[in-house]
Automatic annotation (TrEMBL), chain A:
<dbReference type="InterPro" id="IPR050545">
    <property type="entry name" value="Mycobact_MmpL"/>
</dbReference>
<feature type="transmembrane region" description="Helical">
    <location>
        <begin position="397"/>
        <end position="414"/>
    </location>
</feature>
<dbReference type="GO" id="GO:0005886">
    <property type="term" value="C:plasma membrane"/>
</dbReference>
<protein>
    <recommendedName>
        <fullName>Membrane transport protein MMPL domain-containing protein</fullName>
    </recommendedName>
</protein>
<keyword id="KW-0812">Transmembrane</keyword>
<feature type="transmembrane region" description="Helical">
    <location>
        <begin position="726"/>
        <end position="745"/>
    </location>
</feature>
<feature type="transmembrane region" description="Helical">
    <location>
        <begin position="355"/>
        <end position="376"/>
    </location>
</feature>
<keyword id="KW-1133">Transmembrane helix</keyword>
<feature type="transmembrane region" description="Helical">
    <location>
        <begin position="668"/>
        <end position="692"/>
    </location>
</feature>
From TrEMBL, chain B:
<keyword id="KW-0732">Signal</keyword>
<dbReference type="Pfam" id="PF19574">
    <property type="entry name" value="LolA_3"/>
</dbReference>
<protein>
    <submittedName>
        <fullName>Fatty acyl CoA synthetase</fullName>
    </submittedName>
</protein>
<feature type="signal peptide">
    <location>
        <begin position="1"/>
        <end position="19"/>
    </location>
</feature>
<dbReference type="InterPro" id="IPR004564">
    <property type="entry name" value="OM_lipoprot_carrier_LolA-like"/>
</dbReference>
Length: 751, 190
């Protein structure tokens, strides 16, 4: 019993520090932390969009299960109820008629937003507009009189229709519906950041609660969008992580209990891991200021290597004091740690902030765990109680790993680019089924094509807006050729100042406008349109509107998502709608010398992932060369060096080939897993090789390696059962890699 | 006991008025309902507005299509088609894609739809279900006044009064809650 206290105390202290550190940490949950750092303006747009600038706050809602007219009524009352909720920036259902604030802003802005002013004030156009107003009057009577007096030309109605969906979304009773006319659709913007999961969860709950309060029985609400996905996947991953960590711990406990049969040894065995976590957290916080949530999750798994260190220590214990054993295994242990450190430092240098943190965390954690392992004798743990093995029958078939490794290499080369997966969404920690549900609702809303964006840039806001207007002119020509159906531009809400001034000066003075209205002889009383004429006079006096004009209205958010400052100026975005052939439109824009760039988010992200993987691959290649150099320096003989390198190298190649074939191509996560495999495999080979000349020590070494393979391999196999794609990829890669490393170390080393 | 007797008398009185009217309404509805091919009525509607120098005149045709919808096609002030169904109005104007709205937004048309479609379909029960009615006759003709039972509609429309002579519906008048009056003259020929 006396052996238990010190390890227990050490563990409690470290656990306390670790728990305190984690709870005091500023965890950063941004999804883009593991994305590569953008290099060009185009890549910047890709990362912004993938990380979910404004799209990350959008919630899509569908109400179904009733007569369309009744659903439309629900949509309206729901929009009104939701608008009152805290944490809601805007709610859109296509119907702005009861949104006084927007209607009033549009009334003010219509004189600078409406295009073709000259055409609208021609006698024939004025007469046609007034005929429409008479028809409105015939239909709705006194209810529309005020609106007609203020807007006889119907400018607000057409602006609202354009802004609310470009006339392409199907509406029933003025609110958005899906194409089948079965589901009323609403769009809502959350005030919370996409990664503020708890706030988003509360918001979603209150949205559902309001719906339950006011919707007639039988109607159903469906929510989608990044916040919904985020909340759902956070819940899924929380329960998933809990389940997996319980199973994983059970596996380790079971294996170690069988191997050591000593509570004291098991407690002491956890000390290096705990110390490693504390070191890793400390260094990451010092180097980066904050820790990404995913870094923590992955960092813990990368420290899985550290689980092996005490296993090697206890495995090699013989009748001498434990400190003697520690001295005995110091050389292979430190060599293994140094090699793995090289690789982790290489990751630390990655341009992706998440990966860099991961490298820092793992490197520091690993070094700490190794030092703690060598210092374990100070805690005076009991030694494992098992009969010492004395003999080994070695198998030396180096041809097996050599041939399998070469075959795997050949397969990878033959596969060509197929071996890589460039799908950025695979790297997202989000459940894929959720993403598909989201896309379905998004395309039902008609805003479906979010894959492309047309970007223009300028030194100033005005320059960016002018470039955007020039591009819109080119798009109008493109529409004639059926290259594009429609678009939503920043300039729909904020035309450039020069355009605004031109439009304002095209409006007749109020006196002349009054004459033109009278000339139509439509039966309206003189003075009927005085409210309109005074609005016109006010607009002419006010001059152009600015970006701040929309502040406080739901349209501000939309403008902000389409017009943003960049490092060297401003960027304006155009969202294309109904893009038939992106390649042809891009060529058309180039031919017409439009100052714009068609950004393919999917292609852009693919190219970025490829470039990023190239960069990571290069630094890992350099790391591998350094590791070989280090080993050679230390082992001094080429044959020994080769013997140590062969098992992990072959294991990595075969694992890579198998994962690439059966897991849909390799991603950066697979690379991280392979790196971890290489570190563990190298330890196996080093330990096995170091004690080859001493049969009892070799037997103990083999047993320690078996224990490592079972416990660590088991943990990663359990991790491979995760529903979160990233964890699943990592777990399976490492479990397979450990299995192969163990096999090749056992049978594949030369004599 | 007194109150009980009073109740009985009241019920009996109510019974007699209820019993007298339906016969007449049924007869009227039966004579108005077109036999054979669906009838088409030409209408000329007058509507006042403070914005206008003289009342707005709307002309066009009105009929009940095979799906039971009431179609109102105007020629003045603009060519447009309004299709009315139980809950919805579909508006088709030249140069615009069709739009649909809840009939709840245009209560006067909702009242017109319920009243006219029941009348054109010869369905007196539907009329009784939707409206309180009062039917009077004199030597010049008949006059049927309908008040919507639906509270939301009654809030906006006070009454729809139809009148004519013999088996002809010649005129109707919508009296709005705000005091506005829409007069419509109907004829079988333009």
């Amino acid at each position: 019993m006396r052996h238990v206290w010190r390890p227990l105390l050490a563990l409690l202290v470290l656990g306390g520090i670790g728990a305190m550190a984690v709870s005091a940490l500023q965890l950063d949950y941004r999804l883009d932390a593991f994305l590569p750092a953008p290099r060009t303006a185009q890549q910047e747009i890709v990362v912004e969009q993938v990380a979910g600038g404004s799209a990350g706050r959008l919630i899509l809602a569908a109400v179904e299960g009733d007569d369309p007219m009744v659903l439309a009524e629900t949509s309206r009352s729901l929009a009104a109820a939701w608008r009152d909720l805290p944490g809601v920036v805007r709610v859109d259902n296509g119907d702005w008629s009861d949104n006084e604030a927007i209607v009033e802003k549009l009334m003010q802005a219509r004189f600078v937003l409406a295009s073709d002013v000259a055409g609208r004030v021609e006698p024939a156009a004025v007469a046609a507009a007034l005929e429409n107003r008479l028809a409105d009057l015939a239909l709705a009577g006194s209810r529309v009189e005020r609106l007609i007096a203020r807007d006889p030309l119907g400018l607000v109605e057409s602006l609202a229709a354009d802004l609310a969906g470009g006339g392409r979304a199907r509406t029933v009773d003025g609110v958005w519906f899906d194409r089948e006319g079965e589901r009323a659709l609403l769009l809502l913007q959350s005030a919370h950041a996409p990664y503020a999961i708890e706030e988003q969860a509360r918001l979603l709950d209150s949205l559902r609660a309001r719906f339950a309060e006011l919707a007639p029985a039988g109607q159903r609400l469906q929510l989608a969008g990044a916040p919904v996905i985020g909340v759902a996947s956070a819940e899924a991953s929380r329960s998933d992580a809990l389940r997996l960590s319980l199973w994983g711990s059970a596996v380790v406990l079971l294996v170690l209990a069988f191997a050591w049969r000593s509570a004291s040894a098991m407690l002491a065995g956890a000390v290096p891991l705990a110390f490693g976590v504390v070191c890793g957290l400390g260094v990451t916080v010092l180097a980066f200021g904050q820790v990404h949530g995913l870094t923590l999750a992955f960092g813990f798994t990368l420290l899985g290597v550290a689980l092996d260190y005490p296993v090697h220590l206890f495995g090699h214990a013989d009748r001498r004091a434990l400190s003697a054993t520690a001295r005995n295994i110091r050389a292979p242990l430190l060599l293994g740690v140094a090699s793995t450190l090289i690789a982790y430092v290489a990751i630390w240098l990655s341009s992706s902030p998440g990966l860099a943190q991961l490298g820092a965390f793992s490197a520091a954690g690993l070094a700490g765990a190794a030092i703690a392992t060598l210092a374990l004798p100070a805690l005076d743990p009991a030694l494992p109680r098992r009969v010492q093995p004395t003999r080994v029958t070695a198998i030396h078939w180096p041809a097996v790993p050599v041939l399998l490794g070469l075959a795997a290499l050949g397969f990878l080369v033959w596969q060509g680019p197929e071996r890589w997966s460039n799908d950025l969404s695979r790297l997202s920690p989000i459940d894929r089924a959720q993403i598909e549900a989201d896309q379905e609702l998004r395309s039902a809303l008609g805003g479906g094509d979010v894959r492309y964006l047309i970007a223009t840039a300028g030194d100033s806001r005005e320059a960016a807006l002018r470039a955007s207007e020039a591009t819109v002119r080119a798009l109008e020509a493109a529409r004639e050729q059926d290259l594009i159906d429609d678009w939503q531009a920043a300039t729909d809400l904020l035309p450039s100042e020069s355009t605004q001034r031109r439009r304002l000066s095209a409006w007749p003075a109020p006196g002349e406008m009054s004459e033109r209205l009278a000339a139509a002889e439509s039966g309206f009383l003189p003075g009927a349109f005085d409210p309109f004429l005074s609005d016109l006079a006010a607009a002419r006096a006010r001059g152009p509107i600015t970006r701040e004009f929309w502040a406080g209205t739901p349209l501000q958010a939309r403008l902000d998502s389409q017009l943003m400052p960049t490092d060297g100026g401003w960027r304006a975005l155009i969202q294309p709608v109904g893009l038939a052939d992106a390649g042809r439109l891009a060529a058309f824009l180039e031919r017409s010398e439009a100052p714009a760039q068609l950004v393919d988010l999917a292609e852009g992200s693919r190219a970025m992932v490829a470039a990023w993987r190239g960069e990571a691959g290069l630094s890992l290649g350099i790391a591998a060369a350094l590791i070989v150099g280090l080993l050679w320096l230390r082992l001094r003989r080429a044959r020994e060096t080769l013997a140590v390198i062969l098992p992990p190298a072959a294991a990595v190649l075969v694992t890579a080939a198998l994962m690439s074939r059966f897991d849909g191509g390799l991603t950066i996560v697979h690379l991280v897993g392979l790196l971890l495999t290489a570190g563990i495999g190298l330890d196996f080979a080093l330990f096995s090789r170091s004690f080859l000349g001493d049969p009892p020590a070799a037997a103990r070494s083999r047993r320690a390696i078996n224990t490592c393979a079972l416990s660590t391999g088991g943990v990663f196999f359990v991790l491979g059962q995760s529903v979160i794609g990233m964890l699943q990829m990592l777990g399976l890669t490492v479990a397979l890699g450990i299995l192969l490393s163990w096999l090749f170390t056992r049978i594949g080393q030369p004599r | 006991m007194i109150s009980g007797l009073l109740t009985l008398i009241l019920i009996a009185a109510a019974g007699t008025t209820e019993a007298a009217a339906p016969d007449d309404l049924d007869r009227l509805v039966a004579t108005l309902a077109p036999a054979g091919e669906p009838a088409e009525l030409h209408f000329r509607e007058r509507r006042e507005s403070p914005l206008l120098s003289e009342p707005l005149v709307v002309t066009g045709r009105l009929w009940r299509n095979p799906q039971g919808q009431l179609v109102r096609r105007t020629t003045e002030p603009q060519e447009a088609t309004y299709t009315l169904t139980a809950g919805m109005i579909i508006i088709e104007r030249p140069g615009q894609s069709p739009r649909n709205y809840s009939l709840g937004h245009v209560p006067e048309l909702a009242v017109l739809y319920h009243g006219l479609s029941a009348l054109l379909a010869g369905n007196a029960d539907a009329l009784r279900e939707r409206f309180e009615h009062e039917l009077t006759r004199d030597e010049t003709g008949w006059r049927l006044s309908l008040q919507p039972r639906d509270a939301a509609l009654a809030d906006k429309v006070e009454s729809l009064t139809l009148s004519g002579s013999d088996d002809r519906l010649e005129r109707f008048e919508l009296t709005l809650a705000d005091g506005g009056i829409i007069e419509t003259e109907l004829s079988r020929r333009p």
